[in-house]
Write a structure and sequence with these properties.
Blueprint: H1 2-50, H2 57-70, H3 75-87, H4 91-104, H5 111-121, H6 125-138, H7 143-155, H8 159-170, H9 179-195, H10 199-212, H11 217-236, H12 240-253, H13 260-273, H14 277-290, H15 295-310
Helix pairs in contact: 1-2, 2-3, 3-4, 4-5, 5-6, 6-7, 7-8, 7-9, 8-9, 9-10, 9-11, 10-11, 11-12, 12-13, 13-14, 14-15
Length: 316
């Protein structure tokens, strides 16, 4: 009987002790869940601001800070803050966020790419190089990482490895995110081949870049320079037919620009020399539309009209 009473007393004591503990634990769990939910809400609000662009980055930052106060391991908040700091050129603040994120999840998408871009901007090239390699190890089709590796190889005067890196970049799938780095890789390849005097290869690569981004100012400018070299070569060889084709290509790149005036004038001269007076006049008329006071175009048209009146039937 005494033993039974003792057992019942022990059970009662255990019950009395465990109920408050369970209540406390339950309260803590409930509090943690609530904090986590609030952190997610701050994160989502931050993303809404972030997606509106740079003008809303300050508002986004406040939301991400609030999210991290409630949940310091919120990966997306750390990365978004790092992106914002990177845009503001707050290099060390961005680096700090990335280092925190690396401890939480070293495989977070885009982590090492942003690490590399930061180190590259800070002129810590060896660290940047390693970061881009890490990025590629996690994402073998990351065109931007290959592009930056290519630029580092060029800085080190290693064009052979630079070409390999750029070729890897341009083989990556074209997406809204990869488009810019692929075009820039084509551009750098074109410049390398131009320096190596392989103008045809350079032109081929730059034309592929324009298929992806027809309005790329840098690509158009580089291609125009190379076309100009090719045209000069053809004229030096008295190969005016191919020179004319080059000038026509140059005009197609930017038909209404002031730079095109020179190319229209060159074509006018070539067509005049071949006896194609009407085509020559059309070139000079195009010049007058771009530059109504162009005296050379005006006098050339007058001269051609006089030639036509005295040489009917020359043009075929």
């Amino acid at each position: 009987m005494k033993i039974r009473i003792a057992i019942e007393i022990v059970i009662v004591i255990i019950f009395v002790i465990t109920i408050p503990i369970a209540l406390i634990l339950g309260k803590n769990v409930s509090s943690d869940i609530k904090a986590s939910e609030n952190a997610i809400q701050y994160l989502q609000k931050g993303d809404q601001f972030f997606n509106q662009g740079r003008s809303k980055y300050n508002d986004a930052s406040v939301q991400y800070w609030n999210a991290l106060k409630l949940n310091p391991k919120l990966e997306d908040a750390h990365f978004r803050l790092a992106e914002i700091y990177y845009e503001y050129i707050w290099n060390y603040e961005a680096l700090n966020e990335l280092q925190k994120l690396e401890k939480i999840n070293p495989k977070y998408p885009g982590l090492y790419l942003l690490f590399g871009k930061l180190y590259h901007r800070m002129a810590e090239i060896d660290k940047a190089f390693k970061a881009f390699q890490n990025s590629i190890a996690l994402d073998p089709q990351n065109s931007e990482s290959y592009y930056y590796l290519g630029t580092i190889y060029q800085q080190r005067n290693n064009n052979e490895e630079a070409i390999k890196a750029y070729n890897q970049a341009i083989m990556s799938p074209i997406t809204p995110m990869s488009k810019e780095s692929i075009v820039k890789s084509y551009l750098q390849l074109g410049r390398i081949y131009k320096t190596d005097k392989d103008l045809d290869k350079a032109i081929e690569l730059l034309k592929k870049a324009l298929i992806i981004d027809p309005k790329s100012v840098d690509v158009i400018s580089e291609l125009t320079l190379i076309y100009s070299q090719k045209a000069d070569q053809y004229k030096a060889q008295q190969n005016f037919d191919d020179a004319a084709k080059i000038y026509e290509e140059m005009i197609r790149l930017s038909p209404d620009s002031n730079e095109s005036i020179q190319y229209y004038m060159e074509l006018g001269s070539i067509y005049k020399g071949k006896g194609l007076y009407d085509k020559a006049i059309s070139m000079y008329e195009a010049v007058k539309k771009l530059d109504p006071l162009n005296f050379d175009a005006f006098t050339s048209i007058k001269e051609l009209e006089m030639l036509k009146s005295g040489k009917v039937g020359v043009e075929k």
